[in-house]
Description:
The chain is of the alpha+beta class. It is built from 26 helices and 18 strands.
Amino acid sequence: MLSGKFKVFDCNIVYLPGHINPGDTTLPAENTKEIPFGIAEMRYLPGTQHEEFNNIHSECVIIALSGSFDVKLDDGANKKTVHLNKASFGLYLKAGIQKQLAKFSSDAVCLILIPHYLPLVSVAAINYNNSKTVIETLESIRDQTYPNIELIVVDDCSTENDVDVINDWLKGYSKPYKFIMHEANKGISATYNSGLYSSSGKYFSTIDTDDAMLPERIATQVQILEASDEKIGAVYSDAYVMDINSAKIDGLFIQRHRKFSEVPSGNIYNALLQGNYIPVMSVLIKRAIFDDIGGYDEELYDNDYDMWLRIAQKYDVVYSDFVSSRYRIRPGSLSFVITSNEWNYTDTKIFLKHVGAPLPMGRIRKIAWDVYTTDDGDTIPFLKELADKTLDRYLLTACLLWKIGIPKDAGVMVLDKLNEQAVAGDTLQTNESDANDLKLFINEVLPVMPVDMLHNMARRFYIENDPRNLSLLSQLADHKRSRYLLAAHLLAQYRIPVETGDVVLRIINEVPGQDAYYPINGVRGADARLFMKNIYPALPLEVLKAIGCNAYCNENEDLILLVKELAEKTNDRYFKAAWLLWKFKIRIPVGAIILERINEYCKIGKSNLFIDLCIYKDIFEGRLKYN
């Protein structure tokens, strides 16, 4: 009698898929598959010793009965060859073993292989509001020909009756399982992580509960990974496509996503960067590699593409050329639930992890176009980071257009022009010195921007008073030699109220020849001098007085310097009064009354001496009474 653990070599054991009726002793050859079994516990027993089966704790065994079979065994000390007569093979549940053996004579020879050595495979079934399809998914896992599977069902706080449906099904499931129920909806990536971090198998796989596996999937892929070296991290295959009613749709999954002459296998990283084509329910992963690459990224709306890229970046991924699964297309599936902006957000963050690799710039530029035209503020920070790292002119320009609020019709013209250059073979690469806002605007935006649109942008910058845009505006004013752009910049700098500033801009825009900018000695000087040189000559006195009043009433120190310049330039007592009221710190309610009275004196033609006396008298009394 042979007993103990032996290494099987020079031998393949026939492995039957599915659950076989214990009363069936025939072997349907078309359903068999040979797999190397590795370490097994061997017992060579006369058929009368049925009590030995009580010590078998595995759920399934393989029995050799009635035929001829040679097995070479190595117990570590001696190599033996066991010749078994009358050998045919079947896979049985433990409960049916004794009933089956009773059909044979007492001297039947049995070879029992306890499959504890079969590596455990953890399968995480990810569920959210899939009560109509979850049973089909679970039964496809149950029907796997591979016997050693740990089922992990994770429900992400479904709002339908999914939990009850799953619990009812699990009552009839005899293998190990875990059922994890989230108390709040955590999103798909967190749900995948719940399955991953609850798994204890050597291999890990996920499946959404609207998809299904074909029976041979796990067994075939385990065989591939068991024979692989440490460079290989995962194996994938193809999938049928089905509709909501489980009816097959023309075309396999990979064909529908990419057109390959040969599906990539091994180093698939560069091919995968060009777009996801791997059916998630077809992938089996070595559980140990998650210690290296980490779990699923919970900041993303979707996770499978990110995971495949991170695996492929460090490991080979083998393509197993068979159809292993079924993928369902339905309105409630992830492809329909996630919005286009959320896909763009996810893909942009994914590509940020792979800067330096051959990124799909055409695809990323389409994302940039979407982000700009849909005003996607959530994705913009990550798109700008990607633009800065890749120095792609299209991405940089799209981010600039969004930042400065260029109208979509004009912005699309700019982007279309860049796209034409890319189609013509331009890489659209720039360098760091040319990647700043000013040069991008000058090189990419200005050539297609009408003057009235440029002026509208300048006015908006003035109203919004964003320092970043004002810096760009002042540089553009120098570049364009535009008095209008300079006026908008100075109006913002001096915080001139919009009602007054609009009058200034309208006058400069309407007066012929007024948009001729005159630099001071070719160098930007102080703002007050620029205003006096370029803006003041175009404005009527009443507008200038409104600016002076605003400077005093708002205690605008920058603008007060301009008021002093106006007083000296015009010799108008109104500006002199505003300047002195600020200088001597006369309180605004009193000063406003004084300014109004001085303005009346100017209108009726009082002499400058008379007005000067009134100004000093009012200032003296104001300081004496209120200060």
